[in-house]
Amino acid sequence: MKKTIKVMLLGLIVSATTVGCQKDDTPSFEKKTVENVELLTALKAKGFKTEGNAIVLNDVVKKTDRLDLSGIKLKSLKGLEIFPALEGVDLSNNALEEIDFALLPKTVKAVELQGNPTKVLKNLKVDRKFTRLFLPSVAQFDMGDILAYYKANKGLNMQYEKDGKLVKYTLLRDVVDDNMRAELKKSFPSVFTGEQVDLSKPMSEEDSKKNFELGSEFSTYDKEVSSLDGVQFIISRDEYKGNFIIKLDKKAPISYYKAPKNVKEQAFKNVIAQGVFDLSTAINATNITLIKIDNLKDVDLSENVALGDFTNAHNGSDLQLVKCPDLETVEMPKNWDKKEQIDFSATLYSLDKFKGIDLTQVQRSATNRSYILGLLPESCKILYPKNFHKKIIYPELIKNPTEENLMNTFMVTNDFKERKDFKAFVEANKSIILISEAQKMMMDWLY
Q1: Torsion sign across C-alpha atoms 386, 391, 396, 398
Q2: Cβ contacts of residue 246 below 8 Å, gap of 6+?
Q3: Helix/strand/coil (H, E, C) string of 265-325?
Q4: CA trace torsion 321, 325, 327, 328 (10° rounding)
């Protein structure tokens, strides 16, 4: 009996050892963390194997060549690189405000991006090979990567969204408002084909130097404009070197505006910015006027190289920001730290949400530059000029400048006059003429 028990125990031990040493034939796969929450959620719903916030890179992932990711509230394209064989992807009707083509796997040949509230399209290289490219409505206004890509790849099926429908991408663009179209066609005939702006036509030398003024004190134009869409295809061309002033009596929308790089003076009044309104590309602008611009939150002039230039006394730099109810921030040129002299005047008036501006590098001028400040939030932070004792003198005007010649005028509303920081600045700079009486009345009349 004892012998029998020993044999049984030995058999159990051998059996347990055998089971423990059996080889696990289940394949092991790498895992990839997906930080894009919306993408991860959608892939889980489609049955892709996940572990926590990671996708298991199994054969299903490696062999997937088509994905429908439409309507999943996607905010970024990050994470799609986990699909090495992906050739087609539907990304329509999502929440993509920025589309970075560099984040699309290089294997992708067909992509649908219509129905997104996109403001920025970037990194679309002309040598990227697509067979089908459906784009959001902003594509029609893009005069950079998108336009260059189409010109280099005319054979592909390229479309963009317009009025809720996909239309074939061409080089012809509409000017929405009849009155605006007539005025533009009269001023810039070289770029029109029929009633449309033709992006395939180079602007003539004569047209490229013309100033365009609509509603300015120098313009005789008095017709109402319902939309500014279409003007972008003229003034945003690289070859355009004129100045433009668009000051309307009534508010009109513009869907997209990316400031031209070669225009010195640009002015808008009574405009509703419905999408992109980007000043960061206004790198050579010396005079910028923005009056009553709705939905404008930021003015980025960090890359500008011309604002404040010490050129000549007759053409000083100027920034006017007036009655823009949504404006919060203004970023001044980065190169100001490297300039020895900065000649500049500014108007900052009636900006309900304004957070502040850095004017520390500004110097006073021999030509009596003026600064208008008023009706700004108490919380906004103004960094006042720290080198206002340094004198900018234009020898062609003043051979022997007196202190009176070097006076600079600060015109402020009474509420601003009482600010402690402003009082301290005035006390430290005796060569300032301070005007506050009736300033608000004058500003309201002017603007």
Answers
A1: positive
A2: 212, 213, 214, 215, 228, 231, 267, 268, 269, 271
A3: EEEEEEEEEEEEEECCCCCCCCEEEEEEEECCCEEECCCCCCCCCCCCCCCCEEEEEECCC
A4: 120
The answer to whether 96 and 104 are in contact (CB under 8 A) is: no
Looking at domain 31-168, its CATH class is alpha beta
Q: How many CB atoms lie within 10 A of CB 155?
A: 6
Q: What single-letter DSSP state applies at residue 442?
A: H
Average pLDDT for 270-287: 94
Instruction: Tell me the pTM.
Output: 0.83
Token pair recorded at residue 377: 């939030």
Alpha-carbon separation of residue 280 from 53, 277, 303 (angstroms): 37, 9, 7
The answer, yes or no, to whether residue 16 has pLDDT greater than 80, is: no
Domain boundaries, the chain: 31-168, 206-446
Tell me what percent of the chain is helix, strand and coil, each rounded to the nearest 5: 20, 30, 50
Residue with tokens 């990316």: 258
Higher pLDDT, 252 or 217: 252
Query: Residue 400 above 50 pLDDT?
Result: no
Predicted confidence at residue 181, as pLDDT, reads 94
pLDDT of 299 > 90? The answer is: yes
Average pLDDT of the residues of the chain: 84
287 phi/psi in degrees, rounded to 5: -135, 120
d(C-alpha 256, C-alpha 138), whole Å: 7
| Distance of alpha carbon 4 from alpha carbon 192, whole angstroms | 105
pLDDT, position 214:
84
Q: What pLDDT does residue 443 have?
A: 62
One DSSP character per residue, 378-419 reads TT-EEE--S-TTSEE--TTT-SS--TTTT-EEEEE-HHHHT-
Measure the CA–CA gap between 300 and 302, rounded to whole angstroms.
6
Cβ atoms of 382 and 360 within 8 Å: the answer is: no
Residue 192 and residue 186: Cα distance in Å, rounded?
10
> Rounded to 5 degrees, what are φ and ψ at 14?
-60, -45
Beta partners for residue 318, in sequence order: 287, 345
Query: What does the block give as tokens for 317?
Result: 């730099």
Report, as an integer, the average pLDDT of 334-348.
Answer: 83
